[in-house]
Amino acid sequence: YEFVLAMLFAIEEINRNPDLLPNVTLSFTLFGAHCDSTTTEVNSLNLFSKYELINPNYICAMSSCDVILTGPSWTASTKIGTLLCYLHSPKPITYGPFHPILSDYDRFPHLYQMAPRDTYLPLAMVSLLLHFKWTWVGLVITDDDQGVQFFSNLRQEMHRNEICLAFVNVIPVNMQVYIMRAETYYNQIVTSSAKVVIIYGEKNSTLEVSFRRWECLGTQRIWVTTSKWNTLTRKRDFNLDLYLNTFIFSHHHHEISSFKNFIQTVNFSTYPNGITLKQLSWMYFNCSTSISYCKTMNNCSSNTILEWLLQHSFDMSMNDDCYNIYNAAYAVAHAFHEKLIQQVDIRGMEKQTHLMHECSQLHAIMKSIQFTNPIGDPVNMNQREKIDAMYDILNFWNFPQSLRIKVKIGEFSPYFTHDQQLYVSKEMIEWATGNRQVGMDQCVKCPDEQYANKEHNCCLPKAVTFLAYEDSLGMSLACMALGFSALTTLVLGIFLKHQDTPIVKANNRTLSYILLISLLFCFLCSLLFIGHPNLVTCILQQTTFVVLFTMAVSTVLAKTITVLLAFKITAPGKRMRWMLVSGTLNFIIPICTLIQLFFCGIWLGTSPPFVDTDAYSEHGHIIIMCNKGSVTVFYCVLGYITSLALVSFTVAFLARKLPDTFNEAKFLTFSMLVFCSVWVTFLLVYQSTRGKFMVAVEVFSILASSAGLLGCIFVPKCYIILFRPSVNSLQMFKNK
């Protein structure tokens, strides 16, 4: 029934397209196959309406150019392809999986396969096994040519990657033979220690019967299979536990978003040929509809029956077979469209009514058709140019009340380099956090605010944490900040008390006061990083930190330039002497700070810091922290401070060998060296830390760099002021 819906959707979409087969209507007839092990739906596509209605101004001629769509079983396609090979018309198109036998041009010269080749399917499955380190797996295949060929290719890939097969179940095609061996196959799978099993084979076969039996017996494994087994996860077919962890390899194609709306709104009463929900339900129940159920269905509306079917069995997105039917309908439409164009060009419009009855050129046109379907995927009908498939990896998520959704968790592309062919999103897989075992128990992913306990049988709430004052780490950093602040205040008091001494006056005491005050607030601003974050503290901690550090470093730059000018210029002119005496160099500080404020304005205007949570860095904890917003701007403001520090270091380095009675150039050089070393180390360590330790690293860098400036520049001066006052006198300076 899903094939019929896909066909109806494609036909209606084609008939609404004014650029494809204008003034021509595409229609189809549905033939339901008999109920046997190779259940098939055969659909014939015809041009013009088959509705026996007479419409004014419409030519309702029947087309003799029929195209048969057959599938999904390759055995049914083989039978029909062989039969039609002798009839020459209609042309068969199979929408099932690609099969090498059907590509034999000598046996099936007019048969077209819509599916791409599955050359790299064994490699894709082995890549998934290696990703999860599953090296002991089982295999279940059907006993036919395709199953044996898949086994041969898979075994080569496994041997190459050191993966071992625990068992191989080769299910016979004959039902009588299978029944005699069914118990052996069951014992083989349940007694094996392999928890991962690969499935490959046809649906509507003895292999499907095996799975139905295993379901009744409660067999649970991690299944790795193809999209043809997608529909076996329906509610009525299997329980949730059996397909707890199913990984499905489906051919990659874009999503047809309008298909969901179509199957929700389709009205079968508008189709005169009587395609009813009863027919679709009959297909769904594999021809086992009871008389009582038929009576019940008679009392239900079409919309009610369709709604029931969709809720119980139907996937709203197109599977591989439905997508192949969709492309097949468009291929036929494009072929007839090209045929119309060619014949109209040759004969003219006056004979258009007879054009559709000439089908000798249809095959030549069909085999060379190339087009892009409405969702942007290329389609090539040349069977000799079939491409190898790329795969989407799908996983089913199970929820209470038997709710299940299919989620794409990865991709495999053979066209990438070997180490980039497989991509799997670990976060999308339905396992409990921290539980990577593949045991028998059902695993449910805990919510982000919870985590799995040690026994992995329940979810516990995560503790909310941040860099708090109560933590030993937070308390230590806070004590360091307060201690350095007190020390800076003490140094400032010493300088104020001895402000008239030569050592304080010699190096521009105004700049020294500004630097000490800047360092005092640098120490204090680190307290903004400790405690429960909120929007105000997140904004203040970053902007305050960068502005204060810019003031401190620009003050050091002004001091180094002052030292260089004072000692390098022996006979300064009036302008240079005026710059040194008037304190013009002090304007370096507000200029540099204003530039940094400009960067901060851009930061706050585009992507300001905000409160964020991190639920993954620490197991069992949700960390509340400040997100910097734009990381690019953050590194820009750090880079600006670093550039000022490098300029200060360069200028101080040039003045390091000048007369050193009260020359602080050496101390300035060393302080900038310490400052740059701290922040280079910060950038390296910051990238490898997470959670509250990332905040601690930034606080420590602020304290370390500020302490480096305080210690390298002011501790030697304080030592002279307090312990060698004889050196700090004008008389001693004159004697020297």
Q: How would the blueprint of this fold be written?
A:
Layout: H1 2-15, E1 26-32, E2 41-47, E3 67-70, H2 74-87, E4 91-94, E5 112-113, H3 121-131, E6 136-142, H4 145-160, E7 164-171, H5 175-191, E8 196-200, H6 206-216, E9 222-226, E10 245-251, H7 257-265, H8 277-284, H9 291-298, H10 302-312, H11 320-347, H12 362-366, E11 370-372, E12 378-380, E13 391-399, E14 403-412, E15 422-424, E16 450-452, E17 459-461, E18 463-465, H13 472-497, H14 502-505, H15 509-525, H16 535-568, H17 574-582, H18 588-606, E19 610-614, E20 621-627, H19 631-654, H20 665-686, H21 692-723, H22 730-735
Tell me what the structure shows.
The chain has 736 residues and is α/β, with parallel strands linked by helices. It is 47% helix and 14% strand. The protein is built from 22 helices and 20 strands. α1 packs parallel to α11, α18 runs antiparallel to α19 (631-654) and α20 packs antiparallel against α21 (692-723). The chain is elongated. The chain starts with a helix and ends with a helix.
